[in-house]
Amino acid sequence: QVQLVESGGGLVQAGGSLRLSCVASGGTFSRYRMGWFRQAPGKEREFVAAITWATGFTSYADSVKGRFTISRDNAKNTVSLQMNTLKSEDTAVYYCAARTNPAGEYDYWGQGAQVTVSS
Fold first, then answer.
1. Nearest-CA neighbor of 2 among 113, 112, 96, 108?
2. What is the pLDDT of residues 61-90, one digit of tens each?
3. Do the beta carbons of residue 46 and residue 60 sit within 8 Å?
4. d(CA 89, CA 104)
5. Is 66 exposed, middle or buried (0-12, 13-18, 19+ CB in 10 A)?
């Protein structure tokens, strides 16, 4: 059973930085694509960033390009999201997710981590 546990959320002032981590267990992660998504109050969940575990290939939403960096640590089975130059509109619950089927949807999700950016 795949399990994803996020940590690192919190409150930060606009312009500041936070780092989210997602510890993964129970799966063969070298085969997966890992993503970060977020959901702000009253809004739908949206894609933030993703990384293919085996190759390190990354993709980002336009709204975070140049500010956020996704990475993975194979030895620790951890995927991280470094968030710099945070804006109030980045306030949301951030979710780590795993896509185990290359042709499918993200099928495993973490519990979420709150990120609040004060202006």
1. 108
2. 999 999 999 999 988 999 999 999 999 999
3. no
4. 29
5. exposed
Q: Is the pLDDT of residue 1 over 90?
A: no
What pLDDT is stored for residue 101 in this prediction?
87
Q: Tokens 């085969």 sit at which residue?
A: 31
Q: Label residue 77 exposed, middle or buried (CB < 10 Å: 0-12, 13-18, 19+).
A: middle
Residue in 43, 24, 38 with CA at minimum distance from that of residue 99:
24
**Cβ neighbours for 6, distance < 8 A, ≥ 6 positions apart:** 20, 21, 22, 94, 95, 96, 110, 111, 112, 113
64: left (phi over 0), alpha (psi -120 to 50) or beta: alpha
> Residue 111 and residue 93: Cα distance in Å, rounded?
9
CA dist list (Å): 19 to 29, 36, 44, 65, 93: 21, 12, 23, 16, 14
**Token pair belonging to 110:** 């973490």
Structure tokens at 15: 């312009």
